[in-house]
Structures are given as structure tokens and as C-alpha cells.
Write a structure and sequence with these properties.
It is built from nine helices and two strands. It has helices spanning 2-28, 34-52, 54-60, 75-108, 116-139, 160-193, 204-235, 244-273, 275-319, and strands spanning 143-148, 153-158. It has a two-stranded antiparallel ribbon.
Length: 320
């Protein structure tokens, strides 16, 4: 548990500052592309996932080591956290599905354009819909937020026939999203591996964009495939055949740790693949350094003036 908690702290330490930096960069781009807008939305969902990780971290690094629920003993806090994390995790899988689909669409229909308003409306509509659906099933008592000892967090239990049907819907949605991302990843990789018969007239930055999107989706597939395998094992009643220790930690690693890892790796992809972001970050660092230096100089000058004034006053008093 201490090892898993340490990993989560490491991911949060890396992911929160880099996501904030990426968010500021994409927000200041006046003529950003549709993908820039989606990256901006992705940084918001990743920040939500990373901030929600504070919950399991406090439990995993607890000195008692018994995974006691601590703050999650409050049923209202437990429900609020479950809604926040589950919605953020599902949305963090939805955004890569949209990005990869647009990339695949650009390969097969390069002249078809998608407006930013359409993309933003689609993302907002998805978040609102899943939030309303989750709250509706909670009010119907088909789901209930409970503390899961195996996950060290609060998640939803599905109650009755309606709850089980809703669980199947949620699992199917997650599997479908990952399948869409995987298929689009394959579609995007094939043109990159194929050597063109004639020299390409496309600007080099278009290929760089394609590589960035491919790496972004590959990271998503890598981090979410273990969760999907676990979901399939649960649906097929195979999960119960695994050992107790394996089942206990597999859920925690696949659903919490790997989800937080995905949110921490995404801004690292932006920083390594986007020269504009690195240049912007360098300018911000230079501006911050100049600002701090000017403040230090101003403080030093003020101190010197005060010291000189005090010296002159004491000399005057001595003469008197």
C-alpha cells in the first residue's frame, strides 16, 4: 500500500504542474486547432483525475495500514467523490476517443472539417449526460456509493435488476471507447509506417501532429487495457477464480493507479512533442525570473535606502 501510495504521489507531483502548464498554453492560443481545443479539454479532465487521487493517497499512506475509510466514512463525501472520480475517469477515456476519431477521419476524408463548437458541445453534452444519468440512478436507489476496501476509494454498487443493467451499460461503454481508440490507433499508425511512393508535399509539422496524436492514443491504450481486461474478467465471472492477493491489488492498480498514470503521462507527451509549448514554457520561466530579479533588486534598494536614512539620522542625533 505504501508503494502504491508513493507511486500516486509521484504521478500527482509530475502531472498536476505539467497539466496546469499545458492548460495555460492551450488556453492562450488564439488560433488553435480543433485538436488544441481537445487537448485543453483533456488537461481539465486529467487535472480532475489527479486531484481526486488525494483520496486514495491519504488511505494508502495511513500509518495504521488497514485501509480504513477515514474521510470516506461520511456518506455524502463518499457519494460526491465517487461521482467526481467516476465521471472524470470516463471522460478521460472519451476525449482520446474523440481525438483519435478525428485523426482517422482526417486520413480518410482530409477535406472534411469539424468545427470547434461541435467538438466542445459534444464533450460538454457527454459530461452533462453521464452526470445526469448517474444522479438519476442514485435517486432511484439502483446504485449506491460505498467504500471499496479493495480500491481504497468510494465507488458505486449496482443494486437490483436495474442496477445490474446499468452496470452492463457502463462496462460496455468503457470497452467500446477503448476499442474505438485502438482501431483508430491502428488506422493512424499504418500511414506513418508506410513509406510514400512520391515525396510528400505536406508540411513537416502535419506529420509531427500525426505522430503526437498517435503517441497520445497509444499511451491511453497502454494505461486502460489492464482495466478493460479486468472488466471482461468480471463480466465473464472469471475474476473470482484468481487468487485473493491478485484480486485485491489488481482492482486498485488497474482502476486507480493506471488511470492516474495516464493523466500524468499526457502532459509529458505534450511537452516532448510540441516545440511551441516548450518555447512558451521557457518564455514564462524567463519572465518569472526577470520578475523575481526585479523584485529582489527593488527590495535590496529599499533596504539600502532605509539603512542609509537610519545612519544619517543616528549621525545627526550624535552631533546634536
Amino acid at each position: 500500500d505504501l508503494l502504491l501510495g508513493s507511486f500516486l504521489i509521484l504521478f500527482m507531483t509530475i502531472g498536476i504542474p505539467t497539466n496546469l502548464l499545458s492548460f495555460s498554453y492551450f488556453l492562450t492560443r488564439d488560433k488553435g486547432t480543433v485538436h488544441d481545443t481537445l487537448y485543453l479539454i483533456a488537461t481539465i479532465s486529467d487535472l480532475c483525475v489527479l486531484m481526486a487521487a488525494f483520496g486514495p493517497v491519504t488511505i494508502l499512506i495511513n500509518a495504521a495500514g488497514d485501509r480504513s475509510p477515514l474521510l470516506f466514512e461520511n456518506p455524502y463525501l463518499c457519494t460526491a467523490w465517487a461521482l467526481f472520480f467516476v465521471t472524470s475517469a470516463r471522460f478521460s477515456l472519451f476525449v482520446p476517443a474523440v481525438i483519435s476519431t478525428l485523426r482517422a477521419l482526417a486520413i480518410h476524408a482530409p477535406y472534411y472539417t469539424v468545427k470547434k463548437t461541435t467538438v466542445v458541445g459534444c464533450c460538454l453534452g457527454y459530461v452533462v449526460c453521464i452526470a445526469i444519468i448517474d444522479i438519476t440512478f442514485l435517486s432511484m436507489k439502483a446504485t449506491k456509493a460505498v467504500y471499496k476496501h479493495s480500491h481504497a476509494v468510494c465507488l458505486f454498487d449496482f443494486i437490483g435488476t436495474v442496477g445490474r443493467n446499468f452496470a452492463i451499460f457502463v462496462y460496455a461503454e468503457q470497452i467500446a471507447a477503448l476499442l474505438i481508440i485502438t482501431i483508430n490507433l491502428i488506422i493512424s499508425v499504418i500511414p506513418l509506417l508506410r513509406k510514400p511512393k512520391t515525396p510528400s508535399k505536406s508540411p513537416r509539422n502535419l506529420r509531427d501532429v500525426a505522430v503526437t496524436i498517435t503517441i497520445f492514443t497509444a499511451v491511453c491504450v497502454f494505461c486502460n487495457t489492464p482495466l478493460m481486461i479486468t472488466v471482461i474478467l468480471v463480466i465473464t465471472n472469471t475474476f473470482s477464480t484468481l487468487g485473493d492477493c491478485t484480486r485485491f491489488y489488481l482492482r486498485m492498480v488497474c482502476y486507480i493507479v493506471m488511470t492516474v498514470l495516464n493523466s500524468a503521462l499526457n502532459p509529458c507527451v505534450y511537452l516532448t512533442r510540441m516545440p511551441g509549448l516548450r518555447k512558451w514554457a521557457g518564455n514564462c520561466r524567463s519572465s518569472l525570473g526577470s520578475f523575481m530579479q526585479s523584485k529582489a533588486d527593488s527590495f535590496r534598494d529599499t533596504t539600502v535606502r532605509d539603512a542609509s536614512a537610519a545612519g544619517e539620522e543616528s549621525g545627526t542625533q550624535a552631533v546634536n
